[in-house]
């Protein structure tokens, strides 16, 4: 249940498990799972009264923050839906609105349980005179036009997805008439349009946007029917925002694109449902929709000048996130390092020799304020090696720590590079210890690291240990992990949930010497 602080009628815009305060009511704050603050600038013509009221909102917000403690709070920025100012030089209202929003953003910067979304970004989609319906306002004190309710709910869902750190991982791109204008095989290297006047300028802007996505942790891949050597020569000969090194994986050949995209997913070791495919050819888009329906396939714009708006929708629908971690910003390089590891492995016939050659360093440390955002992100995004698939927010993680949970992170590095924080174990104290969460990024699987991590952490404790495996569509590969670690299966309950127990002192916690533990 979410409790909503509000100063006007908004029920039509929020459907589901919400309860609402009275208008501007601060008599009591009930217990709730989460809180939402959504105030709008009231409609008043007396400027002095209006400014004074808006100036009071920051103190009211601070009072509410004090009342809810560490519970999650989402604040929508304060915006004016309707304002008539006969004295253009009077900027008091604008300053009062700005002061409130600064207070909200400062709270979000200092309190992990508070997040802010820009309500102005939603309002700016609509012409000024469409934002309010006076009939509904006079009947129900509903400032915002109820015709916008459906759009608002969709927008808020998108914002909450970003807040929960849920976004797609990989953007797969065609080349001809998608990354640049024209067909390379027909126009030649100098003929494709990527700079200069329109339409080349539109494609240049498009690539600049894609480059920014890559900088912010989105994996870029190429899937194009083309000659590999021609594409390589083009990238070398023409200056453009993107280079081949910005793509973690490429499939440039004449095979069907469904097969190539499956191979891209396998090489990157990511799920098909975490991918977005962009192609100007409607036949190719329909092929992917039919053969790989779990992949998101947006419609391509009809004209190059529509690319900036297409990019904006692409980011909002699939790739927006509330905050980035250091690991996000290194994604392309990390996946490229994995390709180098795969090539190195092919040179060895003995797996142990290969593992020893990697010079692996495992850094296992308790959770800190710095790593909590990454910890929450991993619980939200990791699916394959995840024994329970419990999702946590940053506030949830802090609450677990406050209640005595032990939270350990794993960072993995080797001679090819640093994968960053890629493993997590959460233990709760209860008649000994219960493993609440055990997960690892797919980037580091296949080298026995998961076993070394488990054994190292468990080796720090004594007494009874309990654990669960909760099956999902994606984590079948870890169904017998606890059995391999020596834990006893005590029972299997509804839905295939397996429960395990062990006495820690009886478990084998020795690890191979080719893992350097820090």
Notes on the structure:
By secondary structure, the protein is of the alpha/beta class. It folds into three domains: 2-163, Rossmann fold (3-Layer(aba) Sandwich), CATH 3.40.50; 170-319, 3-Layer(aba) Sandwich (Rossmann fold), CATH 3.40.50.1000; 349-517, Gcn5-related N-acetyltransferase (GNAT) (Aminopeptidase, 3-Layer(aba) Sandwich). The protein is 36% helix and 20% strand. The chain has 17 helices and 18 strands. The strands form three sheets. Strands 10, 11, 12, 13, 14, 15, 16, 17 and 18 form a nine-stranded mixed sheet that branches. Strands 2-1-3-4-5 form a five-stranded parallel sheet, covered by helices on one side. Strands 8-7-6-9 form a four-stranded parallel sheet. Strand 3, helix 1 and strand 4 (73-76) form a beta-alpha-beta unit. The longest helix is centred in the first third of the chain and has 22 residues, at 47-68. The radius of gyration is 27 Å and the shape is flat. 33% of the residues are buried.
Search tags:
9-stranded mixed beta sheet; 5-stranded parallel beta sheet; 17 helices; 36% helix; Rossmann fold; alpha/beta; single chain; 518 residues; 3 domains; Aminopeptidase
């Amino acid at each position: 249940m979410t409790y909503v602080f509000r100063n006007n009628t908004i029920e039509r815009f929020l459907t589901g498990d919400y309860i609402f305060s009275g208008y501007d009511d601060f008599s009591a704050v009930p217990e709730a799972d989460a809180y939402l603050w959504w105030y709008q600038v009231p409609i008043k013509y007396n400027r002095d009264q209006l400014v004074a009221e808006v100036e009071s909102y920051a103190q009211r917000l601070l009072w509410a923050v004090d009342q809810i403690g560490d519970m999650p709070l989402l604040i929508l920025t304060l915006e004016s839906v309707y304002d008539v100012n006969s004295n253009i030089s009077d900027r008091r209202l604008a300053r009062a609105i700005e002061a409130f929003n600064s207070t909200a953003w400062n709270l979000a910067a200092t309190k992990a349980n508070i997040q802010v979304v820009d309500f102005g970004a939603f309002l700016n989609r609509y012409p000024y005179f469409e934002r309010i319906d006076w009939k509904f306002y006079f009947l129900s004190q509903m400032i915002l036009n109820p015709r916008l309710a459906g759009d608002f709910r969709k927008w808020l869902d998108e914002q909450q997805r970003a807040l929960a750190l849920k976004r797609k991982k990989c953007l797969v791109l065609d080349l001809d008439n998608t990354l640049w204008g024209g067909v390379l095989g027909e126009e030649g290297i100098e003929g494709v349009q990527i700079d200069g006047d329109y339409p080349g300028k539109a494609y240049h802007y498009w690539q600049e946007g894609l480059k920014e996505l890559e900088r912010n942790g989105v994996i870029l891949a190429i899937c194009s029917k083309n000659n590999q050597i021609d594409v390589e020569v083009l990238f070398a000969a023409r200056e453009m925002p993107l280079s081949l090194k910005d793509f973690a994986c490429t499939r440039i050949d004449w095979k069907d694109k469904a097969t190539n995209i499956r191979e891209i997913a396998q090489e990157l070791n990511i799920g098909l449902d975490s991918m977005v495919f962009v192609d100007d050819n409607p036949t190719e888009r329909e092929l992917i929709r039919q053969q790989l329906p779990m992949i998101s396939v947006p419609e391509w714009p009809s004209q190059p000048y529509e690319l900036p708006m297409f990019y904006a929708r692409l980011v909002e629908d699939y790739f927006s996130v509330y905050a980035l971690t250091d690991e996000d910003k290194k994604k392309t390089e990390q996946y490229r390092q994995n390709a180098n590891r795969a090539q190195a492995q092919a040179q060895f016939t003995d797996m142990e020799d290969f593992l020893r050659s990697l010079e692996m360093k495992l850094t296992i440390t308790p959770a800190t304020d710095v790593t909590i955002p990454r910890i929450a992100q991993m619980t939200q995004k990791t699916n394959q090696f995840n024994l329970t698939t419990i999702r946590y927010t940053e506030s949830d993680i802090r609450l677990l720590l406050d209640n005595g949970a032990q939270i350990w992170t794993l960072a993995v590095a080797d001679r090819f590079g640093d994968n960053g924080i890629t493993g997590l174990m959460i233990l709760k104290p209860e008649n000994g210890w219960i493993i609440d969460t055990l997960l690892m990024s797919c980037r580091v699987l296949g080298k026995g690291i998961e076993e070394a991590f488990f054994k190292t952490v468990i080796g720090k404790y004594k007494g009874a240990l309990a654990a669960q495996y909760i099956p999902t569509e994606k984590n079948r590969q870890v169904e017998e992990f606890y059995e391999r670690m020596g834990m006893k299966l005590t029972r299997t309950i509804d839905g295939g949930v397996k429960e395990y127990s062990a006495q820690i002192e009886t478990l084998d916690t020795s690890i191979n010497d080719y893992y350097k533990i820090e």
